[in-house]
Automatic annotation (TrEMBL), chain B:
Pathway: Protein modification; protein glycosylation. The chain crosses the membrane at residues 7-25. It comes from Chelonoidis abingdonii. Its main location: membrane. The gene is B3GAT3. The keyword Disulfide bond applies. Residues 44-71 form a coiled coil. PANTHER family: GALACTOSYLGALACTOSYLXYLOSYLPROTEIN 3-BETA-GLUCURONOSYLTRANSFERASE 3, GALACTOSYLGALACTOSYLXYLOSYLPROTEIN 3-BETA-GLUCURONOSYLTRANSFERASE BETA-1,3-GLUCURONYLTRANSFERASE. This is Galactosylgalactosylxylosylprotein 3-beta-glucuronosyltransferase. It comes from the Eukaryota.
Length: 395, 326
């Protein structure tokens, strides 16, 4: 910074007349300049001296005038972020929530078609009201995080029905990738055809559970972990697919084929950073199980009755994990051996996150967006021992 | 003090230097850019989503414009009549089927509650569903209502409600309007292809139903494009041995026969026949679903969720928050 030392001789010498050499020289120059200016033009003193100064001390004076402004401009030019940040600070304070949501309304008129009035939701409880979208599924967006849904399934009479209505639900969700893992030695035609016709982005895998873990038709051992191998295969596939390439932003959700999911749930989980949690209806013998959220927005406990001492007392449908976290911890899988009923979720989550890393969703865990429904086994008594209906018709 | 040029320059330099120092100090401050950038990127995500949704909306409107040019008339409206009653899984069931119905064009959902008043749960759900709907309600008289311990087949269910819906249609629709009426129970599963098959009904159309009547499926028997009998194992001597989900009736047929309705006192399994008898004969039935060889609808039922822990808690007065709707 050259202007500062320059300042002193010019600023102080004319007044105090210390007799410093440079100071005298400068003042002499000033007076000579002024004299010559008078002889040159009959104009105002300041302007004349200015013009002559330009001629005389051309380089130095222009440099001194221009220097601070040039420095200022280069500094501002190099760091446009500063300008941007100041502007942004104002903007983000106005929009309290970072997520901008859609809020479409359809009038309560019984007759009329839903009208399209789009408003942007502000803050607290964003509602997702779908207006009819004829294009199914919604077009893929390159910036929206992907939701990978892992669904283990096994052959039984209601399988096609369950997968059909699940597909009907998923067709409304943007950027969804359905990973269906069959409990079977081969990929069945039923599931393959269903997935191809559905129109979703999907991956079809299969792995057979050993006899000891298989679901029998007669008994339903609710304490034995089911779908474990299949979910692990889904995780394995994910880790394989994104081993070398840049992983997309996204989240992994374990969706069983008999539960009921609202469309709002998928938007809540989409922006998960590590692990997000929410209440689940009809789990654990209660109307709903839910995490306990402190006023500061952190998960501090579990509002459950069935074994509340579990590290993560939550149902499979009650949490979602970000892809980044899954890929960071390749050893995190569901454990098979020695897992009591209700501890399957904990066997995965304990390797991924601690309690204070959980993100509560669904309005701080006060809304129920997923129901742990179960479908009755249909009474097929009239089929008899040898079957009655035509086996060629797929049901 | 005289206004000398050198003073002016002195002041000028002082000001410039002070300005520059200030700017540099600003830069030196630590800034938590990550949060701002993240929120900025979240905003971008939101805007992106908005753009893609607007694009799909534009596409839809363009498609609709094209459709109405190509087809002279609009598609016949499908009226789905769903009787429902309050129980734990009610909201889940209605959410599930509304997600299926959202895919169907020209769809009108008639929901009839078994209740003396319109409940808030159903009203809000319908308002948020994005569907065209009609919300009705009527209470089943006590003597015809099932008790908690009764098996579900003991008394016919949903009769009053379906009849109310038929009455509403007769009062609010003209013979000139094209439409098809389908009785869609809230716990069944419907594939999207089914609605394409329903839409072309001229009088009464029929198709197979999966997982019903103790069989993998029940279906009409078809020869040369006509229904000649029924493939069923339970009470096959009924006039129309079908399930409620296995047929659809043209709106005009119902409007022309204003007295046709379900008989409350019908014997078990004869409910469907009590309506269809007065409308159509077996020869006039129209087979759908590839001559009744494909199953497009399943008679699923949901288990009653186990509330053991909830009941225990409620005895202690520590039941779950009732203001949280399930």
């Amino acid at each position: 910074m050259r202007s500062a030392p320059e300042k002193n001789p010019r600023g102080t010498s004319p007044r105090r007349a210390r007799g410093a050499k440079s100071g005298i020289r400068w003042s002499q120059n000033w007076s000579t300049v002024r004299h010559s200016a008078d002889s040159d033009s009959g104009r105002c003193l300041g302007v004349g001296s200015f013009c002559s100064m330009l001629r005389k001390r051309n380089l130095l004076t222009t440099l001194l005038i221009v220097l601070p402004w040039a420095l200022l401009l280069t500094v501002w030019h190099q760091y446009p972020a500063t300008r941007y940040l100041i502007l942004l600070r104002k903007e983000t304070e106005a929009n309290a929530t970072a997520k901008a949501r859609f809020n479409g309304t359809s009038p309560l008129r019984e007759e009329g078609l839903p009208s399209c009035s789009w408003q942007q939701a502000s803050g607290v409880s964003p509602k997702v009201i779908q207006n009819y979208v004829y294009s199914r599924p919604p077009p893929w967006s390159d910036t929206l995080p992907t939701i990978f849904v892992i669904t283990p399934t096994y052959t039984r009479p209601v399988q096609k029905a369950e997968l059909t209505r699940l597909a009907n639900t998923f067709l409304h969700v943007q950027n969804l990738h359905w990973v269906v893992v069959e409990d079977s030695p081969r990929r069945t035609n039923l599931v393959s055809n269903l997935l191809e016709k559905a129109g979703l982005i999907f991956t079809h895998l299969n792995v057979e559970s050993p006899q000891s873990l298989k679901m029998n038709g007669s008994r339903i051992p609710s304490h034995k972990p089911r779908g474990t191998l299949q979910r692990n295969l889904g995780l394995h596939w994910l880790r394989d697919s994104f081993n070398n390439t840049q992983p997309p932003e996204g989240v992994v959700y374990f969706a069983d084929d008999d539960n009921t999911y609202s469309l709002e749930l998928f938007e809540e989980m989409r922006y998960t950073r590590r692990v997000s949690v929410w209440p689940v209806a009809f789990a654990g013998g209660l109307r709903y199980e839910s995490p306990i959220v402190s006023p500061a927005g952190k998960v501090v406990g579990w509002k459950v009755v069935f074994d509340p001492n579990r590290p993560f007392a939550i149902d499979m449908a009650g949490f979602a994990v970000s892809i980044r976290l899954i890929l960071e911890r390749p050893q995190a899988t569901f454990k098979l051996e020695g897992i009591k009923g209700g501890y399957q979720e904990s066997s995965l989550l304990k390797d991924l996150v601690t309690m204070d890393g959980l993100e509560p969703k669904a309005a701080n865990c006060t809304k129920v967006l997923v129901w742990h429904t179960r479908t009755e086994r249909p009474m097929l008594g009239n089929e008899g021992k040898h079957g009655f209906s035509d086996l060629r018709m797929e049901v | 003090m005289k206004v000398k040029l050198k003073n002016v320059f002195v002041i000028y330099f002082l000001v410039s230097v002070i300005g520059l120092m200030y700017a540099l100090l600003q830069l030196g401050q630590p800034c938590d850019c990550s949060q701002h950038l993240r929120s900025a990127s979240d905003l971008m995500h939101g805007k992106d989503k908005k753009i893609s949704q607007l694009l799909s909306e534009v596409k839809r409107l363009q498609a609709r414009g094209k459709d109405s040019e190509l087809e002279g008339q609009a598609l016949p409206v499908i009226y789905a009549i769903t009787p429902t009653y309050a129980r734990l899984v009610q909201k889940a069931e209605l959410v599930r089927i509304s997600q299926t119905f959202l895919h169907v064009k020209n769809f009108h959902w008639i929901v009839v509650e078994d209740s003396p008043v319109k409940t808030q749960l159903v009203s809000e759900l319908l308002a948020q569903s994005g569907l065209r709907f009609t919300h009705l309600h009527t209470e089943t008289p006590k003597e015809h209502k099932l008790k908690e311990s009764d098996p579900n087949w003991l008394k016919p269910r949903g009769v009053e409600q379906r009849n109310l819906a038929l009455q509403w249609l007769r009062e609010n629709r003209e013979l000139s309007e094209e439409g098809v009426v389908y009785f869609a129970d809230d716990d069944n599963t419907y594939s999207l292809r089914l609605f394409d098959e329903i839409r072309s009904t001229k009088r009464v159309s029929v198709w197979p139903v999966g997982l019903v009547g103790g069989l993998r499926f029940e279906r009409p028997l078809v020869e040369k494009g006509r229904v000649v009998g029924f493939y069923t194992a339970w009470k096959p001597n009924r006039p129309f041995p079908m399930d409620m989900a296995g047929f659809a009736i043209a709106l005009q047929l119902l409007l022309a026969n204003r007295e046709a309705q379900f008989d409350m006192l019908a014997e078990r399994g004869y409910l469907e026949s009590s309506l269809l008898q007065s409308l159509v004969s077996i020869e006039e039935l129209e087979p759908r679903a590839d001559n009744c060889t494909k199953v497009l609808v399943w008679h699923t039922r949901s288990e009653k969720p186990k509330m053991k822990q909830e009941e225990l808690l409620q005895k202690q007065g520590l039941g779950s928050d009732p203001s949280i709707e399930v």
